[in-house]
Specification:
By secondary structure, the chain is α/β, with parallel strands linked by helices. It has 13 helices and 8 strands. About 45% of the residues lie in helices and about 10% in strands. The chain is globular and about 70 Å long.
Length: about 375
């Protein structure tokens, strides 16, 4: 994929939003990024989104019942995350924030592992090397620098621009619109541009940085900021899983080919709360939420699948049953998660434990043993 696709900011007669599937489920074919999909791919996208939404709903319910301390909802952002995640190749690496449950799903992370993080039973999470998916980042925007650094390392390891599809590697940094106001994100743009790093900055613009609306954060569309740093940006309909997949796939290939970073703004809406501690009714209008429900990413794709004769009631019932089974497993296994052992946290800092950490672990063990002697 060349820079001809990722051109400069569109003119007055050019569309700002890449879309392959309208809210009414009609397939459209834009001049750029048009992509062919098999029936299995389309059904796979639908299944992914249905199951990920169930993960989100179950986790929210578990938090309400006191089983989790917190849960960041992704309701409404399923298409953006599934599209981006499925566009990645096995060797690509994703750096998430704390809301990328859909990307985690595409990288093979068991949803129960996500629950452990928010239940407080998981001290380190999954092994990033097992899934090429980093640990959730709670510090807003900090991980964009980690992603850029990793991409620079990949570049120096000779894993970019070789022409080998199983070798060339790209990196995805996921974050929200609020993170673009953070210094770390802007610094990562500078480094990525300066070193032509193979990283895709994937911004899910859900229009609310907790309670701060987008218009209080920027005076131009977010994707246009990339031009000031010297690399292309594009805005895609984040409720359109087909368009998101196509755009991110092209951006990733551009990175793998050695053409540097791209900023992808997935324009979507956070239909739920920022987290389960948030009350969005205090700062946004209910009419906006209702308007975006009409653009629901799952309903949009389901309408298209029905119109094309690719699914029927029996198929959809089977997917619903699979979602029910997943929900039941999450409820059961969440409560079965073992309590953490504090001793183990020292083993999760480096691949090989340092002498300093070994000394700290021994000191902790001795301190803990002193309480056992008293008891």
């Amino acid at each position: 994929m060349t820079d001809a696709v990722f051109g400069p900011a569109p003119g007055a007669d050019e569309p700002e939003l890449v879309q392959l599937l309208t809210p009414e489920g009609e397939r459209v074919h834009p001049a750029a990024f048009d992509t062919d999909f098999t029936a299995d791919q389309l059904r796979g996208f639908h299944r992914d989104m249905v199951l990920v939404r169930r993960v989100d709903n179950e986790a929210t319910a578990l938090q309400r019942h006191g089983e989790l301390g917190l849960w960041p909802q992704l309701l409404g952002q399923e298409a953006a995350q599934i599209g981006a995640g499925r566009a990645m190749r096995p060797q690509d690496f994703a750096f998430p924030t704390y809301r990328e449950h859909g990307v985690a799903w595409t990288r093979g992370i068991d949803p129960v592992r996500l629950l452990g993080l928010f239940r407080g039973t998981d001290q380190g999470g999954w092994d990033p090397q097992d899934h090429n998916f980093g640990l959730y980042s709670i510090v807003v925007g900090a991980h964009s620098l980690h992603a850029t650094g990793y991409a620079m390392g990949v570049q120096r390891d000779g894993l970019v621009g070789t022409g080998d599809p199983e070798r060339d590697t790209a990196v995805v940094a996921c974050f929200g619109d609020g993170a673009t106001s953070q210094g770390d994100v802007n610094e990562s743009f500078v480094f990525a541009a300066s070193y032509n790093a193979p990283v895709v900055f994937f911004c899910q613009n859900n229009q609310w940085a907790i309670s701060e609306p987008l218009e209080r954060q920027t005076r131009i569309p977010l994707y246009r900021r990339a031009q000031g740093f010297g690399f292309p940006g594009v805005r895609v309909d984040g409720n359109d899983v087909l368009a998101t997949y196509a755009v991110v796939q092209a951006a990733l290939q551009r990175a793998r080919d050695g053409q540097g970073p791209t900023f992808v703004e997935a324009y979507t809406y956070r239909m739920g709360a920022h987290t389960t501690t948030d009350d969005p009714t205090r700062y946004r209008r209910g009419g906006d939420v209702e308007a975006w429900k009409a653009k629901d990413p799952i309903a949009r794709l389901e309408t298209h699948l029905r119109n094309e004769g690719l699914v029927d009631d029996a198929y959809l019932a089977a997917i619903a049953a699979e979602a029910d089974a997943l929900g039941e497993r999450m409820r059961r296994e969440c409560k079965e998660l073992p309590e953490p052992v504090a001793h183990d946290i020292f083993d999760l800092v480096h691949v090989e434990q340092t002498p300093e950490l070994a000394a700290q672990q021994a000191a902790y063990d001795a301190h803990a043993a002193s309480f056992e002697e008293v008891l």
